[in-house]
Amino acid sequence: MDTVVIQNVSKCFGRTQAVKNLSLSVRPGEILGFLGTNGAGKTTTIKMMLGLLAPDAGSIHVLGGDPRDASARSRTGYMPETATFYPYLNLHELLFFYGGLCGMSRLAIRARARVLIERMGLGEAAGRLLRTYSKGMLQRAGIIQAVLHDPDLLILDEPLTGLDPLVRIQFRDFIRELREQGKTIFFSSHELTEAELICDRVAILKQGELVVCGEMQAIAGDGGQNLERIFLNVLGADAEKGVPA
Amino acid sequence: MKQRLLQLSALAKLSVLELYRRKDLVVVFLLAMVILLPLSFLSPFGVSGASRYVSELALLLIWLFSIMIGLGVSARLFPPEFESRTIYPLLAKPVGRGTVLLGKYLGALAASVSALVVFYLAYALLVGVRQGEWFAPILFQAVLLHVGFLMILTALTLLGSLVMTPSAALTLCALTVIGMLAFGQRLPSLADAQTGPGRWILCAMHWLAPHAEFFDLRQRVVHAWPCVEGSVCLAVLLYAVCYAGLCLALAGWAFRRKRL
């Protein structure tokens, strides 16, 4: 059974149609790249997958259940686009807080946090208040909180935006490591190069509509086009000039 | 059930931690101490025995500072979550919106009550030093009812912060509670003296606004009057629980309807 099943989902905000009749599924253990320009409807789709927004039409099933149910959310990890957390907490306190909400025991949080903090290279900064963290450090704290409770599905919303190359590599390796552990990853981004490097399949959204979905090799075709070229092609010629068609 | 309690405790702890690490709360707290403690040694009008004036002034300050802290704490529980978007990872966890609301409310109440207890301890010290009377029973009753007042104040401000801007919520709630403290008792007689819409407005205020004056035992404490009857005290606390519960129910409705 697919980890995420989105069927004919639409969502409007006033007169703006954010998502139009979207149907998409995410298979277990894969990394799906969810691509699109700014305002394409990626974050709205993610919010619906997390149960934060209700679709106007259609249905969404996450891990076999309604995303608004606590049981689905207890197996889902989410890293927000802008990883801003409570500035008056340190990383340990933040992880105890989120772990507590997920029903983890203090012992389990401590053990898991130690491993993840070391893995993401935040060992020395873990006792500092989060307001003193740089953007890269906050992003790393963001992914730690997302995987703290060992979720089966990980939803990453623009996780690599504004990161330096070293942190990008660290993130990429970590995401691959998670896939090897059997986790399903929904990777929303407009960082095409990164998506090309780590995703098994990609889905491209244009003004709320799904225009392409498939495996990287199948989309690239015989010509072996890169993702950037495919992206420009599906968004129309104007996109090449930086203006979505 | 156990998980719900753990979640509530995590949320409340977060609110308390955040609030105590904010410098503004500490500033109000220190200011209160700086004003309250020297009062122990003040001789008003040159009369060393005129302790009632000092006690009255100290209690007035305690009420003012507790209102400031209660308002400041609860008006800023949710708006920063929306502004900094921390609400998304929070609600992405397996926690209901009702639990988030209740947990944050309990945190705000705990922070306000902890400050209140320290204020009253300072007051008890003041009275003890000046009058040699330590921890009169009426003082315990005053603290208990003051906690009831804070239950209403924090719930009302929390509701306000979810339906309007934080500054508007602060202003409106401050005006309401201070106005009710000053005029709440006289509202029915003021309404009787009016005709037309003025009468209806005052009647509506009498029935809808929180009767903060029910919780104010300052005069009894200052003049060392006997305690309020237990049943009256219980009824007033029950009123606080019902009013705060109603505010929280409305806040829960507003939070569920809020577009994320």
The strand count of chain B comes to: 0
Distance between the termini of chain B: 27 Å
On the 0 to 100 scale, the average pLDDT of chain B is 87
Mean pLDDT of chain A equals: 87
Share of helical residues of chain B: over 70%
Approximate shape of chain B: globular
C-alpha geometry of chain A: globular
- Which residue ranges of chain A are poorly predicted, with pLDDT under 50 across at least 5 consecutive positions? none
Distance between the termini of chain A: 36 Å
Query: What is the count of structural domains of chain B?
Result: 1
User: What string, H for helix and E for strand, traces the elements of chain A in order?
Assistant: EEEHEHEHHHEHEHEEHHH
Strand arrangement, major sheet of chain A: 5-6-7-3-8-9
Which class best fits the helix and strand makeup of chain B? Answer: mainly alpha
* Strand runs of chain A, count: 9
Main β-sheet description of chain A: 6 strands, mixed
The chain-level structural class of chain A is alpha/beta
Helix proportion range of chain A: 25-40%
Oligomer: heterodimer
Commentary on this structure:
The complex is a heterodimer of chains A (245) and B (260). Chain A is α/β, with parallel strands linked by helices and 245 residues long. Chain A is built from 10 helices and 9 strands. In chain A, strands 5-6-7-3-8-9 form a 6-stranded mixed β-sheet, with helices on both faces. In chain A, helix 3 (91-101) crosses helix 4 (106-119). The radius of gyration of chain A is 18 Å and the shape is globular. By secondary structure, chain B is an all-alpha fold. Chain B has one domain (2-257). The A-B interface holds A 47, 50-53, 70-71, 73-74, 76, 78-82, 84-86, 88-89, 93, 96-98, 100-103, 129, 142, 145-146, 155 and B 3, 6-7, 9-11, 13-14, 17-18, 21-22, 84-86, 88-96, 260.
Outline the fold blueprint.
The complex is a heterodimer of chains A (245) and B (260).
Chain A: E1 4-13, E2 16-26, E3 31-36, H1 42-49, E4 57-62, H2 70-73, E5 76-79, H3 91-101, H4 106-119, H5 135-147, E6 153-157, H6 165-180, E7 184-189, H7 192-198, E8 201-206, E9 209-215, H8 216-220, H9 227-235, H10 237-240
Parallel strand pairs in A: 3-7, 3-8, 5-6, 6-7
Antiparallel strand pairs in A: 1-2, 1-4, 8-9
Helix pairs in contact in A: 3-4
Chain B: H1 2-21, H2 23-39, H3 51-75, H4 79-83, H5 87-92, H6 97-131, H7 137-163, H8 166-183, H9 187-192, H10 197-208, H11 218-222, H12 230-257
Helix pairs in contact in B: 1-6, 2-3, 2-6, 3-6, 3-7, 3-8, 6-7, 6-12, 7-8, 7-12
